[in-house]
């Protein structure tokens, strides 16, 4: 296809990409830098940018330029253009189905629900946030109504975040995972000595985290690290992908693993083919694939004994409190299995049970099998059944995650577990291709793995559908078995080895 | 006038104000945070925002809504609306006179000229930057041609930055100043002991600067301080006005006075009437008035002995190197009079001679009395005549300031000297109204002065024409005499007092 035939479309996509990046800069600044007084104007600036962005998707000239490009694209078109037209067509169809005034009304409702959530967590008074969650359920059903082709009310949202995933194909996968994990948690729960209590001074934690992030391949010429209340990674362009970290002075692991996690997200974005810049292809393939690249570096690599053989001496240079700790002790300490109430603090073995129960409960809410009034008790019962613990109140129970309070109900949790599942499947494929990765990790050589991930995952951005990406990278379709094999191999050994024996 | 009649116009102005703020956030981030790899995408994002902003000024609906509001405004209209309509009419007329494609061509030329300037300063090879400066002069004449009502080719640019100022009214003012300053510099040149060489550690300088900026009234709930290569102040909204500072580890004064200077700019913006938010009235009145508020705090206050009686003990807590320094020594050290080659490092007495010679030379260039080829020698001659020093090369001569390399020639320097002149006239008026300000400064009480400035300058934003603002605040029209009286009183005393006698 003639490059000229797609130029008008690309110019429109470039403008949208620029406005996306502007939105990201404003949001990053809001989380990282903005003084308290800046909030009101920033809200207005974000709304203006969102409106301009929205107008561009709804401009009939974009649809016209897309049609023209599709018409000019023959069967022998280049793959990048084919992928671009596929993705833009998908995004445009989705954007046009949701009426602008509905988006505006839901945005206002979402802001109200978010404020009520913040207040309910602080005061323990939940009537108002419950009423608003009922309203959010109505919005979620209305949203599903804009996409009549799906089987389940959650499917449109799930498909938006994780293309190709549906309630019908996720349920058996998650059920299998749960049936194995519940007994494993009971079997492997262990509380070895944690890492020594600090002090782990803030500046040293930031420096140490950044040193390890650079060691695994995060490029600071095209990135930077800051602190924020909730860690995140954000992309302003191929040459500027930033991470944030949350530092807890008495606990080294919180900042360290969140840094590795966000560096994983950021390395993915830094590795996308630069030719995709200015188009939707420059994004990650899906929520699940993005999460897989974060969890791969955080857990599959970052919580391995090989990684700690490399990292511990480096950390000991930053933190005198770690003097005398052995690699075996550190490895055990960062792999404690302890059922808890809070998803974001969960270990590898319990983590997916937190996710799967949220997934199941949101489907029950959407199906009408569960009312908002019954949700707190259903949440508590499920924690007791799966993890053997019960929330003490609302804030460490059904109100702990923000997703349902501000956003729609549905589609926001499956990506976390899909990510864990894929992370193991992808690393297993890399190990098959590359041989002794543990030897590399112990020597601090993460280049071979990074190069393999760049070739098989990063560079493709959103150009391949998730199913194809997984198949091309791993030789098979999505499966939980590599993940279960990984957990079993690691935690059986940890549970059976004598203390100090690893 | 009915608020409804102006609502459509205000909505359009709000959108422009939001895009202005977005541009400022992108630019601030570029100077303060952005990693090296981010530049390419950032340039594109800034260009997109500039285009969207430009389209809004050129949208015929804005002109229509302005006309409608002007039509609805009776003689008894409220003063804010009258001011708003006056300022928007002025900005719109100016915007419509300059053809969009000319703006785009000049932007491209400006970027080329800027790059050539950077290279010429580094290599000393000036042929290319001279050719480009000749082209810039052509652009400057073309720009003047869009505004046929003025007498001098520089007038349109001068009037844009400093409304009401013209070559005809600035020339006598600057000539008077120069005729007095040249002999004063010769008389008062003195090199008392500077402040002790540090170390003045970076973190301590940032903390000390911020402590003093807060003491004079910079509100950190609505601001923040960062480092950047060139200090600046920038406004993202009434509640978010930031400053940046440049720290030189071995020299305390560079960071300290630039912090007070930028805090002065920022306090002005923080003090504008919040009702002006989202309109062009929320800006400063002019380049000169803005500079006056920065120089007032930097010099009139920040280089006074009363201020140092307050500040020195505080600085001594941050910097052991200052132990044993007396207020008199410090006051002398920060008021050395030394003719130099670099404008931005000049003391109060020599500073305006740097500005006036640039102003005169740019008029000579525009008048054709001076060619670009003759500029280096004319520059050197004038430095020798006015300040008794000669540049060693191009970089500390005619290439030292960026203004002509990237921007147009004309209108960019007069504001610095207008600011100095106004700063003295305005502080003299405040002293007449408030009595013993030095006693307040010594006690660290800057509230009375700040309240007077808020009432007489800050809160009016751009609502009053400069001439009226000066008259209302000081009781007279713009005059250099208060500034000359200030310099004479201060530096005669410094020159005649025995060392240690102050």
Characterize the structure shown.
The structure is a homodimer of 502-residue chains. The first copy, chain A, contains 20 helices and three strands. Chain A is mainly alpha-helical and 502 residues long. Among the domains of chain A are: 97 residues; 211 residues, Neurolysin, domain 3 (Orthogonal Bundle). A three-stranded mixed beta sheet of chain A has the order 1-3-2, with helices on both faces. In chain A, strand 2 and strand 3 form a beta hairpin. The longest helix of chain A is centred in the N-terminal third of the chain and has 30 residues. Chain A is globular and about 65 Å long. The model of chain A has no long low-confidence stretch (mean pLDDT 95). At the A-B interface, helix 1 and helix 2 of A face helix 1 and helix 2 of B.
Concise summary:
The first copy, chain A, is mainly α. In chain A, 64% of the residues lie in helices and 3% in strands.
Put simply, the count of helices of chain A is 20
Termini separation of chain A: 58 Å
Biggest β-sheet of chain A: count, sense, barrel? Answer: 3 strands, mixed
Number of strands of chain A: 3
Give helix and strand order of chain A, one letter per element, not per position: HHHHHHHHHEEEHHHHHHHHHHH
Relative strand content of chain A = under 5%
Highlighted features:
homodimer; 502 residues; mainly alpha; 3-stranded mixed beta sheet; 20 helices; 3 strands
